[in-house]
Please model this.
Amino acid sequence: MPYLHTTRNGIRILIEELPHTHSVAIGCFIDIGARYEPAEVAGAAHFIEHMLFKGAGAYPTAHAISLAIEGVGGYLNASTGYETTAFYAKVAAIHFDRALHVLSEMVQHPLFDATELEKERRVIIEEIRGIQDNPTEVVHELLQQTMWGDHPFGRDIAGSIATVSAISRAELLRFFRQGYHAGNLVVSVAGKINAEQAIPAIERAFTELTVGQRPVAIAAPALPHEQRLSLLPREIEQGNVCLGLPGVSYHDPDRRAVQALDALLGGGMSSRLFQTIREEHGLSYNIGSYHNEFADTGMWVIYAGVEPEALRDAVAMTRQIVRDLAEHGPTAQELATVKEQLKGSLLLSLEDTWAVASRNAASLLRHQTVQPIEQIIAEIDALTLADLQRAAHRLLGSQQQWLAVVGPYDDDDRADLQALLEE
Model:
C-alpha cells in the first residue's frame, strides 16, 4: 500500500516504494477535465495541458522543459480526460529531484506567453483536423455526439476548430485558476524512492500553489431512451462502426461484473466478438469493445472496421451476440477464464512504475482511498454467474442502443440500418 499524506494546504501525496525498480514515476493529477467546460470554451482543459509545456518558471521555453527530462533519458508527457488532467515524468531514480522540479514549475508557474499561445492554437487545430481525417477516430466521436448530444461527453476532448479558434488567453487563465490549486491536486509517485524523504521534498516543491475550492462538473444527462443512428458518408475503403450501449459509473456495485462482461465480449482475440465476427465469419479485421466509467454514468462501446458490403451483416451479428449474452449470460467456463484474465492483466500492469502511480492516483480521486490490489482481486474472485447475468440483463438487454457509422454509404444504407436497429 502506498503512503498517503495530505499537506496543510490540501495537496494529497501518494508514495509507493518499489525498491526492486530502477526508475521513478511522478504524476501531477489535476481533478478537472473536459466535462467541466461550458460549450463556448470546449477544449480549454486540453489547451491548457498544451500550454504548460510551452514554458514555465525556471524553464522558460518548450525546449528547456523537454531537455530537462529527455536530457537525462527520461520521459515527459500529459493527458487530458473528461474528469482529470495528468502531467507525468518517468526518470531513473537518481533524477527524481529534477523531474519533481520540472513538474512543479509547470503546474505552478506556466507562462501562458501570448505568442506561444497563438502558435499552440494552430497546433491544436491541426491535431483536430488530423482526428477528423481519420475515420477510425471520427466514428467514436460521432457515437459520443449521438449518445450525449450537447453535453461535454458528446464532444471531443480537444474541442472543435471553432471553439479552439475563439478561446481567449483570459478564458484559459480563468479555467486554469478554477482547477489548478492545492485542494485539487494529487501528486502520485511510484518507484525506487523513500517516502520519508520524498514527502517533504514534494511539500517544498509545491509551497507556492494557492488554495482554492473544488470545481463542479457538469452533470451528465440521462441517455436518450430512443435508439439513434448517425451516419457520416465518406468515400473511403472501409466501413467504420460503433455500437453504443449503456454503462455504469465507477461507484456502481455492478462495475466489476461489467469489467468482466466487457472482457469476455470484446476484450481480446479469445472474446466472443473476435471469435465470431472475425474468426468464424471473416467480417472484420479489427473488432473489440471497451467500457468508460465516469463519476455518475458510463458508456459501453463495440467498434469494428469492416468491408463496406459487410456492414449490415456485421452489425446484425454483433447485436445478436449482445442479445445472447443478455438473455443467457456467460458460461461457467467463461466466468472462470475471465477472472484469471482480469487478475493477470492487473498484476502485469504493476510491473511499470508509471502504471502503479497512475492507478493509485485514479483510485484516490475516484474513491477517496487507494484500493489494495488484494481487495480488487478478491472482488474479481467473488464474481458469480448471477452477478454477470444481472449486469448483462440490465445493460445489454436494454432497448437503448445507438449506432454510429462512417464510410461509403448513402440514404438507402441509412434506412436499412435504421430498420435493423429497430428490430
Observations:
- DSSP finds 16 helices and eleven strands in the chain.
